[in-house]
Design a protein that fits this description.
Layout: E1 4-15, E2 18-26, E3 43-51, E4 62-68, H1 69-97, H2 101-110, H3 112-121, H4 123-129, E5 133-134
Antiparallel strand pairs: 1-2, 1-4, 2-3, 4-5
Length: 136
Amino acid sequence: MSDKIKHKGIIESTDGGVVRVRIVQSAACASCRAARHCSASESKEKLVEVFQPAGTHRKGDEVVLVASNAVGARAVMYGFGLPFVIMVSAVWLISRFTSSEPLAALGGIACLVPYYAALYLCRDRLRQKLSFSIEE
């Protein structure tokens, strides 16, 4: 099994150190022959920013974006894993010390506000760790 995540895309624009690439992200069953008759298949266009000099790449060029599986796992951990652990812990702690379920639910949601604020403040550092590159 490959240790890389790869997506084919087309360069939309290049600005300084940012290359914007349009990719078509599709479900695994989108390539099935029956996909057009099935409601489970779907595909979405996404614009991905690659932070590296454009080099020889120009608008309209077809490129392959590459990231390691570790980058994908780290992104899932920051986006879903840690918030889940924080929220469940907060709900458990609040419900343990109070008998109010609504307070525990609100506290669980409220504890995510500083977490996501911290992620926003660290976005430049995270961008370096969680990014695609253009395969040469």
